Amino acid sequence: MAELITNLHMHTTYSDGTAIHAGIAREALKSGILDVVIVTDHNVYVQDVEKYYEEGNRKILLLVGEEIHDQARDPQKNHLLVFNTNREFATYAPNPQVLIDQVNRAGGLSFLAHPVDPALPLFNQTDISWDNWEVQGYTGIELWNGFSEFKTIVRTRLDAVKLAFLPELMAHHPIPELLEHWDRLLAEGQKVVAIGGSDAHALAQSLGPLKKEIFPYEYHFRSINTHLITPQGLTGDLITDKKMIYDALAKGNCFIGYDLPAPTTGFRFTAQGRDQNAIMGDELISTESITLQIRVPFPAEIRLIRNGEVVESWDRREVCTYTTRIPGAYRVEAYVHFINKRRGWIYSNPIYYKNR
C-alpha cells in the first residue's frame, strides 16, 4: 500500500482566492510534502487545468472539484464540496438533496463543507454552517476545516493580528460539536467519510495600518491534510491516478493529519480477523473477535473510540493493539503537544466491525 498526501478545498482567482492554478501547484511543490492538491472554486468548475507539475525530483498532481452553494440564499449556508464530476453542477445549488442526487448519478463524490462554521461579527462574517441535515446520500463531511477554526478562537482584532503573523498558533482540533455529530451518525450505522480541508484563499487583508497575506497557501499545505491509503503511488497516468485518488476518498481509506507539529505520514489503523483484514474505511464482518492495530510515526497520546465512546487510551506510544468482540465503528485520535498546547494530530476514518 502507498500513501498520497492530499490537500483539498482551496480557491483560485476564479472565485475568492489570490493565485492561479499553476501558482497553487508551485506553492504545493514548495511545501515539500504533498502529492495531490484538489482545487474547489466557488460555483465554477474550471476545465482543462488538471495536470502534473514537477520541480526537481518532486511531482504533484493538481485536480479540480467545486464548492457549491446557493448564492441567492441569505445567509449562504449549505456549502458542498463536489469531486470527480468533470462538469458544472452549480445549477442544482438551491436544493441540496437534488444536488447530492445529481452528483451521485454522475459518479461523483460530495462532502458537506465546513458543516460548523460560526459567525464572526468582528469581521462581519455570518454563520455559514450546514443546516440541512435531512439530506441523504452524501459521501462524507469536512471534519476539520483550516479556516473555520479561525472564527472559533478570534475574539479581538489583536487575536486576528497575532494569528495573521503566527498562523501556526491557530489549529487545535476539529470543532467539538461537529466531532460529536459525526460520532452520532457513525453510531446510527451510517458510513460517513471524514476529510480535512485547508479552505485556503491566501487573502490580502488590512489589519489597521498593517497589510498582510492571511494564511498563505504554503502554510495551509503544511498543515491540515488528508492522507489517502492507495494500492500504489502516482503512476503518471492522469486517468489511472485520478480514479485511484477518488476511490480512496469514496471508501474512506484515508485519515486527517495535522502535519505542522510533526509529519503524520506512516500512520496506520488496521484490523485483523481469522480470515479477514481491513484498513480505514473498510467493513469487517465476523462472529469472532478481531484485533485492531494502531501505529503512529512518533510517540503520542492515542485514543481508540467506538461509536463516540473512548474504549482505550495510551500515552507516549507508537504501537497499540486492542482485541474486541463488540461490533461498532472504531476510529483513532492521536494528540501531540505543539507550542505549549495539546493539539489534535491524527483523526482516522472508522473501521466498521459487524457480527454476522
Descriptive overview:
- By secondary structure, the chain is α+β, with helices and mostly antiparallel strands.
- It folds into 2 domains: 2-258, Metal-dependent hydrolases (TIM Barrel, Alpha-Beta Barrel), CATH 3.20.20.140; 268-354, Immunoglobulins (Immunoglobulin-like, Sandwich), CATH 2.60.40.
- Helices cover 19% and strands 39% of the residues.
- It has helices at residues 21-31, 96-105, 148-153, 157-165, 176-187, 217-221, 238-251; strands at 2-8, 36-42, 51-55, 58-68, 80-83, 109-112, 140-145, 193-197, 203-207, 210-214, 224-230, 254-258, 268-272, 277-279, 283-285, 290-306, 309-324, 328-338, 341-348, 351-354.
- It has an 18-stranded mixed β-sheet that branches.
- The mean pLDDT is 94.
Tally of individual domains: 2
Q: What percent of residues adopt helix (DSSP H or I)?
A: 10-25%
What is the CATH H-level superfamily of the largest domain?
A: Metal-dependent hydrolases
Low-pLDDT segments, ≥5 res: none
What is the succession of H and E elements?
A: EHEEEEHEEHHHEEEHEHEEEEEEEEE
Number of separate helices: 7
Outline: globular
Mean pLDDT, as a whole number?
A: 94
Q: What is the C-level CATH assignment of the largest domain? A: Alpha Beta
| Number of β-strand runs | 20
Rg estimate, integer Å: 20 Å
Major β-sheet profile: 18 strands, mixed
Class from secondary-structure proportions: alpha+beta
Taken as a percent bin, the fraction of beta residues is 35-45%
Which architecture of the largest domain would the CATH scheme give at its second level? Alpha-Beta Barrel
How far do the termini sit from each other? 28 Å
Assign the CATH topology of the largest domain: TIM Barrel
